[in-house]
Amino acid sequence: MPTTNPSQKKRRIAAFDAVLIFIDEPQLITLTSGSKKQGRIVAIAVPDADAAAQKFFAVSVNIDDWKRYLSGTVDLRYLFASTSRLGKFYIFDLRDMRQNTIKMNIWAEKTVPEAYLPSPKLFSRDHTEVYGNKPAIQAQSQLFIDGEWELQDFGRFQQRYADLYAMSFGMNNVKEEKGSIARLKATVTGKNFIDNLTRLFQGGTSYIHFFQDMFDLIPYGDRLNLRKIHYASPGAITVAGNDKFLSDVQCYINNYLSSRYEISKYYNALDSFLGSSSLRTMHPNKYKEHNLHKDKLVTLTKELCDGLKVPEFEILTKITDDNTLLSAKIALATCRRIQGACSFFQQGRISYEQ
Protein backbone atom coordinates (compact mmCIF):
# COMPACT_ATOMS: atom_id res chain seq x y z
CA MET A 1 0.00 0.00 0.00
CA PRO A 2 1.52 3.37 -1.01
CA THR A 3 2.33 5.74 1.81
CA THR A 4 0.78 9.18 2.01
CA ASN A 5 3.10 12.12 1.53
CA PRO A 6 2.81 14.24 4.71
CA SER A 7 2.76 17.39 2.61
CA GLN A 8 -0.50 16.25 1.00
CA LYS A 9 -2.33 16.34 4.32
CA LYS A 10 -2.18 20.14 4.32
CA ARG A 11 -3.04 22.00 1.18
CA ARG A 12 -3.57 25.58 0.14
CA ILE A 13 -5.73 26.77 -2.72
CA ALA A 14 -4.37 29.41 -5.07
CA ALA A 15 -5.62 31.07 -8.24
CA PHE A 16 -3.45 31.35 -11.33
CA ASP A 17 -2.51 34.95 -12.07
CA ALA A 18 0.10 35.13 -14.84
CA VAL A 19 3.10 33.57 -16.56
CA LEU A 20 6.27 35.61 -16.04
CA ILE A 21 8.81 33.47 -17.92
CA PHE A 22 7.84 31.14 -20.77
CA ILE A 23 10.50 29.04 -22.49
CA ASP A 24 8.86 26.14 -24.36
CA GLU A 25 6.47 25.98 -21.39
CA PRO A 26 5.86 28.04 -18.22
CA GLN A 27 9.00 28.40 -16.12
CA LEU A 28 7.95 31.10 -13.66
CA ILE A 29 4.38 31.96 -12.69
CA THR A 30 2.58 33.98 -10.06
CA LEU A 31 -0.62 33.13 -8.23
CA THR A 32 -2.93 34.78 -5.73
CA SER A 33 -4.63 33.37 -2.66
CA GLY A 34 -7.38 34.28 -0.22
CA SER A 35 -10.96 35.35 -0.76
CA LYS A 36 -9.86 38.81 -1.92
CA LYS A 37 -6.86 37.42 -3.81
CA GLN A 38 -4.49 39.65 -1.84
CA GLY A 39 -1.99 36.92 -1.00
CA ARG A 40 0.93 36.71 -3.44
CA ILE A 41 2.62 33.46 -4.42
CA VAL A 42 5.55 33.01 -6.79
CA ALA A 43 6.28 29.58 -8.28
CA ILE A 44 9.22 28.29 -10.32
CA ALA A 45 9.41 25.09 -12.39
CA VAL A 46 11.60 22.42 -10.76
CA PRO A 47 13.00 19.07 -11.95
CA ASP A 48 11.01 15.90 -11.28
CA ALA A 49 11.55 12.18 -11.88
CA ASP A 50 8.31 12.10 -13.85
CA ALA A 51 9.26 13.64 -17.19
CA ALA A 52 5.61 14.42 -17.95
CA ALA A 53 5.09 16.32 -14.71
CA GLN A 54 5.02 20.09 -14.49
CA LYS A 55 6.25 20.43 -10.95
CA PHE A 56 6.48 23.88 -9.41
CA PHE A 57 8.05 25.00 -6.16
CA ALA A 58 6.28 28.02 -4.69
CA VAL A 59 6.72 30.57 -1.93
CA SER A 60 4.29 32.97 -0.29
CA VAL A 61 5.71 36.50 -0.35
CA ASN A 62 4.56 39.72 1.26
CA ILE A 63 3.33 42.52 -0.95
CA ASP A 64 6.31 44.78 -0.23
CA ASP A 65 8.83 42.14 -1.35
CA TRP A 66 6.71 41.45 -4.44
CA LYS A 67 6.74 45.13 -5.39
CA ARG A 68 10.47 45.34 -4.75
CA TYR A 69 10.98 42.38 -7.05
CA LEU A 70 8.85 43.89 -9.82
CA SER A 71 10.75 47.16 -9.52
CA GLY A 72 14.07 45.33 -9.90
CA THR A 73 15.29 46.15 -6.39
CA VAL A 74 15.73 42.47 -5.46
CA ASP A 75 16.25 39.33 -7.52
CA LEU A 76 14.03 36.24 -7.67
CA ARG A 77 16.24 34.21 -5.36
CA TYR A 78 15.72 36.81 -2.64
CA LEU A 79 11.99 35.97 -2.59
CA PHE A 80 12.80 32.31 -1.93
CA ALA A 81 15.95 32.41 0.16
CA SER A 82 16.24 35.73 1.99
CA THR A 83 14.63 34.49 5.21
CA SER A 84 13.46 31.25 6.72
CA ARG A 85 10.06 30.67 5.22
CA LEU A 86 9.35 27.13 6.36
CA GLY A 87 5.59 26.72 6.36
CA LYS A 88 5.27 29.14 3.45
CA PHE A 89 6.73 26.88 0.76
CA TYR A 90 4.55 24.76 -1.48
CA ILE A 91 4.87 22.12 -4.20
CA PHE A 92 2.35 21.33 -6.91
CA ASP A 93 1.91 19.92 -10.39
CA LEU A 94 0.60 22.51 -12.82
CA ARG A 95 -1.27 19.74 -14.67
CA ASP A 96 -3.63 19.53 -11.68
CA MET A 97 -4.91 23.05 -12.23
CA ARG A 98 -8.68 23.20 -12.79
CA GLN A 99 -10.52 26.36 -13.82
CA ASN A 100 -7.46 28.46 -13.02
CA THR A 101 -7.29 27.04 -9.48
CA ILE A 102 -4.61 24.83 -8.05
CA LYS A 103 -4.33 22.93 -4.76
CA MET A 104 -0.78 23.27 -3.50
CA ASN A 105 0.81 20.85 -1.03
CA ILE A 106 2.60 22.51 1.86
CA TRP A 107 6.32 21.74 1.77
CA ALA A 108 6.93 19.30 4.62
CA GLU A 109 10.72 19.05 4.49
CA LYS A 110 12.98 21.01 6.84
CA THR A 111 15.27 22.17 4.06
CA VAL A 112 14.94 23.19 0.42
CA PRO A 113 17.12 21.50 -2.24
CA GLU A 114 19.42 23.88 -4.05
CA ALA A 115 17.95 22.60 -7.35
CA TYR A 116 14.58 24.03 -6.29
CA LEU A 117 15.90 27.55 -5.77
CA PRO A 118 16.24 30.06 -8.63
CA SER A 119 19.68 31.13 -9.75
CA PRO A 120 21.02 34.38 -8.33
CA LYS A 121 20.73 37.62 -10.33
CA LEU A 122 17.50 36.68 -12.10
CA PHE A 123 15.55 39.95 -12.03
CA SER A 124 12.13 41.01 -13.28
CA ARG A 125 13.84 42.52 -16.32
CA ASP A 126 14.50 38.93 -17.42
CA HIS A 127 10.79 38.09 -17.74
CA THR A 128 9.75 36.97 -21.18
CA GLU A 129 6.16 38.12 -20.59
CA VAL A 130 4.84 41.57 -19.68
CA TYR A 131 3.18 41.58 -16.27
CA GLY A 132 0.43 44.08 -15.46
CA ASN A 133 0.60 47.55 -16.92
CA LYS A 134 3.64 48.43 -18.92
CA PRO A 135 5.78 50.69 -16.71
CA ALA A 136 5.89 54.35 -17.65
CA ILE A 137 9.07 55.72 -19.18
CA GLN A 138 10.83 57.67 -16.46
CA ALA A 139 12.45 61.04 -16.93
CA GLN A 140 16.14 61.36 -16.20
CA SER A 141 18.17 64.01 -14.45
CA GLN A 142 21.93 64.29 -14.55
CA LEU A 143 24.08 65.76 -11.81
CA PHE A 144 27.75 66.42 -12.36
CA ILE A 145 30.25 65.53 -9.65
CA ASP A 146 33.78 66.66 -8.97
CA GLY A 147 36.33 66.48 -6.19
CA GLU A 148 36.88 63.52 -3.89
CA TRP A 149 33.96 61.34 -2.77
CA GLU A 150 33.88 58.55 -0.23
CA LEU A 151 31.34 55.75 -0.49
CA GLN A 152 29.27 57.06 2.43
CA ASP A 153 29.08 60.48 0.75
CA PHE A 154 27.06 59.00 -2.10
CA GLY A 155 24.74 57.39 0.45
CA ARG A 156 24.22 60.62 2.40
CA PHE A 157 23.50 62.64 -0.71
CA GLN A 158 21.15 60.01 -2.15
CA GLN A 159 19.15 59.87 1.09
CA ARG A 160 18.66 63.63 1.26
CA TYR A 161 17.76 63.76 -2.43
CA ALA A 162 15.24 60.93 -1.98
CA ASP A 163 13.67 62.69 1.01
CA LEU A 164 13.08 65.83 -1.06
CA TYR A 165 11.72 63.73 -3.91
CA ALA A 166 9.25 62.14 -1.47
CA MET A 167 8.20 65.57 -0.23
CA SER A 168 7.46 66.67 -3.79
CA PHE A 169 5.32 63.57 -4.25
CA GLY A 170 3.39 64.35 -1.07
CA MET A 171 2.77 67.99 -1.94
CA ASN A 172 1.70 67.25 -5.51
CA ASN A 173 -0.47 64.36 -4.40
CA VAL A 174 -2.49 66.61 -2.08
CA LYS A 175 -2.75 69.41 -4.65
CA GLU A 176 -4.16 67.07 -7.28
CA GLU A 177 -6.85 65.98 -4.79
CA LYS A 178 -7.24 62.50 -6.25
CA GLY A 179 -8.17 60.88 -2.99
CA SER A 180 -4.72 61.97 -1.99
CA ILE A 181 -5.26 63.19 1.55
CA ALA A 182 -6.70 59.86 2.58
CA ARG A 183 -3.89 58.13 0.75
CA LEU A 184 -1.24 60.11 2.56
CA LYS A 185 -2.88 59.34 5.86
CA ALA A 186 -2.65 55.61 5.32
CA THR A 187 0.83 54.20 5.78
CA VAL A 188 1.96 50.92 4.34
CA THR A 189 1.13 49.32 7.66
CA GLY A 190 -2.49 50.33 7.26
CA LYS A 191 -2.42 52.62 10.28
CA ASN A 192 -3.72 56.15 10.21
CA PHE A 193 -1.00 58.41 8.84
CA ILE A 194 -1.39 61.05 11.53
CA ASP A 195 -1.62 58.54 14.37
CA ASN A 196 1.60 57.02 13.11
CA LEU A 197 3.36 60.36 12.76
CA THR A 198 2.37 61.68 16.15
CA ARG A 199 3.79 58.50 17.65
CA LEU A 200 7.07 59.09 15.83
CA PHE A 201 7.62 62.83 16.10
CA GLN A 202 9.27 63.26 19.44
CA GLY A 203 12.94 63.23 18.70
CA GLY A 204 15.38 64.13 15.96
CA THR A 205 15.91 60.65 14.56
CA SER A 206 12.18 59.94 14.35
CA TYR A 207 11.86 62.34 11.42
CA ILE A 208 13.42 59.63 9.27
CA HIS A 209 10.18 57.68 9.51
CA PHE A 210 8.08 60.52 8.12
CA PHE A 211 10.07 60.81 4.92
CA GLN A 212 10.38 57.03 4.59
CA ASP A 213 6.63 56.58 5.04
CA MET A 214 6.05 59.23 2.38
CA PHE A 215 8.53 57.57 0.02
CA ASP A 216 6.87 54.17 0.53
CA LEU A 217 3.60 55.61 -0.77
CA ILE A 218 5.10 56.58 -4.13
CA PRO A 219 3.86 54.26 -6.93
CA TYR A 220 6.68 52.05 -8.15
CA GLY A 221 6.50 53.53 -11.63
CA ASP A 222 7.34 56.93 -10.14
CA ARG A 223 10.05 55.80 -7.72
CA LEU A 224 13.41 57.53 -7.72
CA ASN A 225 16.04 55.24 -9.24
CA LEU A 226 19.79 55.54 -9.52
CA ARG A 227 20.57 54.73 -13.13
CA LYS A 228 24.29 55.35 -13.40
CA ILE A 229 27.31 56.66 -11.54
CA HIS A 230 30.38 57.64 -13.50
CA TYR A 231 32.93 58.37 -10.81
CA ALA A 232 35.70 60.60 -12.04
CA SER A 233 36.84 64.16 -11.56
CA PRO A 234 34.64 65.33 -13.17
CA GLY A 235 31.99 62.58 -13.29
CA ALA A 236 28.22 62.29 -13.29
CA ILE A 237 25.25 60.73 -11.52
CA THR A 238 22.11 59.89 -13.50
CA VAL A 239 18.83 59.48 -11.63
CA ALA A 240 15.42 58.61 -13.05
CA GLY A 241 11.90 59.21 -11.81
CA ASN A 242 8.78 61.31 -12.24
CA ASP A 243 9.66 64.43 -14.24
CA LYS A 244 7.60 66.74 -12.01
CA PHE A 245 9.18 65.45 -8.80
CA LEU A 246 12.69 65.67 -10.24
CA SER A 247 12.06 69.25 -11.37
CA ASP A 248 10.70 70.17 -7.94
CA VAL A 249 13.80 68.86 -6.18
CA GLN A 250 16.00 70.95 -8.47
CA CYS A 251 13.86 74.00 -7.67
CA TYR A 252 14.11 73.36 -3.92
CA ILE A 253 17.88 73.13 -4.14
CA ASN A 254 18.37 76.15 -6.42
CA ASN A 255 16.04 78.22 -4.24
CA TYR A 256 17.97 77.35 -1.08
CA LEU A 257 21.33 78.07 -2.68
CA SER A 258 20.16 81.53 -3.73
CA SER A 259 18.31 82.37 -0.47
CA ARG A 260 20.14 80.33 2.18
CA TYR A 261 20.99 83.25 4.49
CA GLU A 262 17.39 84.43 4.71
CA ILE A 263 16.13 80.84 5.07
CA SER A 264 18.62 80.21 7.88
CA LYS A 265 17.13 83.15 9.78
CA TYR A 266 13.63 81.64 9.42
CA TYR A 267 14.91 78.24 10.54
CA ASN A 268 16.74 79.61 13.57
CA ALA A 269 13.76 81.73 14.61
CA LEU A 270 11.37 78.76 14.55
CA ASP A 271 13.82 76.37 16.19
CA SER A 272 14.66 78.85 18.94
CA PHE A 273 10.98 79.50 19.59
CA LEU A 274 10.30 75.79 20.02
CA GLY A 275 13.16 75.59 22.49
CA SER A 276 12.19 78.64 24.54
CA SER A 277 8.54 77.53 24.61
CA SER A 278 9.32 73.95 25.73
CA LEU A 279 7.75 72.70 22.49
CA ARG A 280 10.84 71.11 20.93
CA THR A 281 10.48 67.83 22.86
CA MET A 282 6.71 67.97 23.31
CA HIS A 283 4.81 65.06 21.76
CA PRO A 284 2.45 66.41 19.06
CA ASN A 285 -0.41 64.46 20.62
CA LYS A 286 -0.02 66.58 23.75
CA TYR A 287 -0.01 69.87 21.88
CA LYS A 288 -3.30 71.75 22.16
CA GLU A 289 -4.31 74.07 19.33
CA HIS A 290 -5.55 76.66 21.83
CA ASN A 291 -2.00 76.87 23.16
CA LEU A 292 -0.95 80.46 23.81
CA HIS A 293 1.98 79.98 21.41
CA LYS A 294 -0.15 78.96 18.43
CA ASP A 295 -0.28 82.28 16.53
CA LYS A 296 3.46 82.80 16.82
CA LEU A 297 4.12 79.19 15.84
CA VAL A 298 1.92 79.50 12.76
CA THR A 299 3.65 82.71 11.69
CA LEU A 300 7.17 81.31 12.07
CA THR A 301 6.31 78.01 10.37
CA LYS A 302 4.69 79.77 7.42
CA GLU A 303 7.71 82.05 7.02
CA LEU A 304 10.02 79.05 6.83
CA CYS A 305 7.76 77.18 4.39
CA ASP A 306 7.44 80.26 2.16
CA GLY A 307 11.21 80.70 2.21
CA LEU A 308 11.89 77.07 1.35
CA LYS A 309 9.04 76.84 -1.21
CA VAL A 310 8.33 73.44 0.35
CA PRO A 311 6.38 72.16 2.14
CA GLU A 312 3.60 74.53 1.15
CA PHE A 313 2.09 75.65 4.45
CA GLU A 314 -1.56 75.20 3.48
CA ILE A 315 -0.92 71.68 2.19
CA LEU A 316 1.20 70.82 5.21
CA THR A 317 -1.65 71.70 7.55
CA LYS A 318 -3.90 69.30 5.64
CA ILE A 319 -1.41 66.47 5.94
CA THR A 320 -1.00 67.05 9.67
CA ASP A 321 -4.72 67.56 10.36
CA ASP A 322 -3.97 71.14 11.43
CA ASN A 323 -1.56 70.06 14.15
CA THR A 324 0.54 73.22 14.28
CA LEU A 325 3.40 71.70 16.25
CA LEU A 326 3.65 68.75 13.90
CA SER A 327 3.64 71.11 10.92
CA ALA A 328 6.49 73.11 12.47
CA LYS A 329 8.58 69.99 13.07
CA ILE A 330 8.08 68.74 9.51
CA ALA A 331 9.07 72.16 8.14
CA LEU A 332 12.26 72.13 10.22
CA ALA A 333 13.04 68.55 9.18
CA THR A 334 12.54 69.45 5.52
CA CYS A 335 14.89 72.41 5.86
CA ARG A 336 17.59 70.19 7.35
CA ARG A 337 17.30 67.80 4.44
CA ILE A 338 17.56 70.59 1.90
CA GLN A 339 20.58 71.95 3.80
CA GLY A 340 22.15 68.48 3.74
CA ALA A 341 21.70 68.09 0.00
CA CYS A 342 22.83 71.64 -0.72
CA SER A 343 26.04 71.24 1.29
CA PHE A 344 27.40 69.10 -1.55
CA PHE A 345 26.59 71.88 -4.03
CA GLN A 346 28.15 74.53 -1.79
CA GLN A 347 31.34 72.45 -1.56
CA GLY A 348 31.58 72.41 -5.35
CA ARG A 349 31.31 68.62 -5.45
CA ILE A 350 28.02 68.44 -7.33
CA SER A 351 26.05 70.67 -9.69
CA TYR A 352 23.26 70.58 -12.24
CA GLU A 353 25.46 72.20 -14.88
CA GLN A 354 28.81 70.96 -16.08
Give the secondary structure arrangement, pairings included:
Layout: E1 11-23, E2 25-33, E3 39-45, E4 55-61, H1 63-70, H2 76-81, E5 89-93, E6 101-106, E7 139-145, H3 151-176, H4 180-184, H5 193-200, H6 207-216, E8 225-230, E9 235-241, H7 243-276, H8 294-308, H9 313-319, H10 324-346, E10 350-351
Antiparallel strand pairs: 1-2, 1-6, 2-3, 3-4, 4-5, 5-6, 7-9, 7-10, 8-9
Helix pairs in contact: 3-6, 3-7, 3-10, 7-8, 7-10, 8-10
Q: How would you describe this structure to a colleague?
A:
- The chain is α+β, with helices and mostly antiparallel strands and 354 residues long.
- It has two domains: 6-126, no CATH class; 140-351, no CATH class.
- Helices cover 40% and strands 19% of the residues.
- It has ten helices and ten strands.
- The strands form two sheets. The protein has a six-stranded antiparallel β-barrel. Strands 8-9-7-10 form a four-stranded antiparallel β-sheet.
- Strand 1 (11-23) and strand 2 form a beta hairpin.
- It starts with 10 loop residues before the first strand and ends with a strand.
Helix content: 40-55%
Content of β-strand: 15-25%
Shape annotation: elongated
Number of strands: 10
Mean pLDDT across all amino acids: 84
